[in-house]
Structure formats: C-alpha cells, structure tokens
Amino acid sequence: MKPHLIALKHGLPVTLACVFAASAAAQTPVDPLGDRGRWADMQRQFYQGGEITFDPRVRVEVPPTAEDAMNVPVAVDARALAGEAIERIVVVADYNPILKVLEFEPTGVAPYLAFRIKVQQSTPVRAGVKLRDGRWLVGSAIVNSQGGGCTAPSTGRGVAGWERTLNTVSARQFSSAAGDRLRFSVLHPMDTGLANGIPAFFIDELNIRDAEGRTVARIWPAEPVSENPVFTLELAGVQRVTQIDGRDNNGNKLLGSLR
Fold first, then answer.
1. pTM listed for this prediction
2. What CATH number has the domain spanning 14-257?
C-alpha cells in the first residue's frame, strides 16, 4: 500500500497553508485609503490581538492641508460607539519617522480627545479603538503637508529661562454644545530627538483625576505630540476634574490643580 502523500507549501501541507492564508486575509481588512498609507505596517505594529474592522463610527478629524507642520489639529471621536466597552485608543501617523502619536484610556470620560501633532510629510492619521473583547475598530484620515515638523527644534527653547516654566499646567472646565469639557495645556518642548543635537524630551504620562481622586482618563503622549501640548476631553458625567498629574521621559513630574 502506497503511503498517502501531501504536497507541501513553504513547509506546510497545502490545505493548512490555505487555511492560514485565509485566516490572515480575514484579519487584514482592506484599507479604505487604498495605497496612500502603510496600513499593513500599522496593523502589525499597533493593532494586533483581535479582529480588526474599519468603522465609520471612529472619526479622525484633521484639516485637509496642514498650515503648520508642527501644529496639526487632530480630533479623535469615538462617541458613536455608545454601549461598547472601550479599553484604549491608539493613534498613529503612517509616514511620520516616529509612528505612534499617543494612547488614550477614557476610563470615566467620553471617548473623545482633541490635540495637535507634528507631521514630517503628508500622512494618514489613524485611531484604533481597542474594545475589552479584543476587537479593534479603526478610523483614518489624511492630512496633506509640506512637512518637516518632526525634525524642527521646538520654538520655546529659544526663550531664555524656559526651564523655569517646564511642566506648568493650565486648565479649565467649561460647558459647550457638546457637553462639559476639560481643556488643559502643559508647557513642555516635546522634542522628538530628530533635531540636530537635541535629544528626545517629551511628556509620556498624564493622569486626569476627579474630586474623589479617581482616575477618569489617562493619556500617554509620544514624541509627535506638539510642543506645549493642549488637550481637550469631553467629561461625560464627570462632575469635576480637580487634578492633572504626570511626568516626562526624564522623570520630571508635573502637577496641576483646578479650583
């Protein structure tokens, strides 16, 4: 009796290779931006561990053209995912030399965050919303730019005594048509490490706390966030934020109180 032979493909039986290929295809949805980005790279590096879907309920708002490559406004709005258990939001820029922009954990606030970033060239900006069941819901948008924002030195370093105001926090809580919001800024150069002779120096942790001391949101900024960053959050039922604290990558702490 002749032994049963199974053809091999890359060291795997053909049938198993086909199964694995089909599974990989199912895990890699087609990028709605077409060939204008590096979706396969972004997925592999930042959006692994569960099923991925491009979802119009995850909105990334950027200007069509950036007037200032060092200060590009971005708003990530996943409020339409009402009822979904959100673990965190990861924002990346496909063609920046440093890909990750920030992570946001909306523990007790709405899944909405506005901020500004540096871009090196025209790029897709993506927000991946990680749900607690492991799924990723992704939104994308393209910003066009002449670029150079990531390799330019911060402007604040040219001001004498900038170190004395390092990590100063200013904040206010206010009502808008969208609901109660918190807007705060931190004085910091947010150096990428890509400008000649200037090492990376940036805020890498922010905690937003309510009157009871509970953490209602966390932000982990990375180097592409703009100098002297400004963040806007929608509080969604949080009565009052009283403290913002964190640190930069050199271990300098920051602390701000709202009265």
1. 0.89
2. 2.60.40.2470
Tokens of 115: 């901020």
Helices (H) and strands (E) in the chain, counts: 2, 17
Encoding tokens for residue 192?
A: 């990428």
Q: What is the pLDDT of residue 27?
A: 63
CA end-to-end span of the chain, whole Å? 87
Alpha-carbon gap, residue 107 to 84, rounded angstroms: 13
What pLDDT digit, counting tens, does each position of 21-48 carry?
444 444 679 999 998 999 999 999 999 9
The residues with which 73 forms a beta bridge, in sequence order, are: 116
Dihedrals φ, ψ of 147, to 5°?
90, -170
140-159 mean pLDDT:
92
Q: Where along the chain do its domains lie?
A: 14-257
Which two three-digit tokens encode residue 18?
Answer: 């086909």
pLDDT given at position 12: 45
- Whole-number Å distance between alpha carbons of 146 and 56: 28
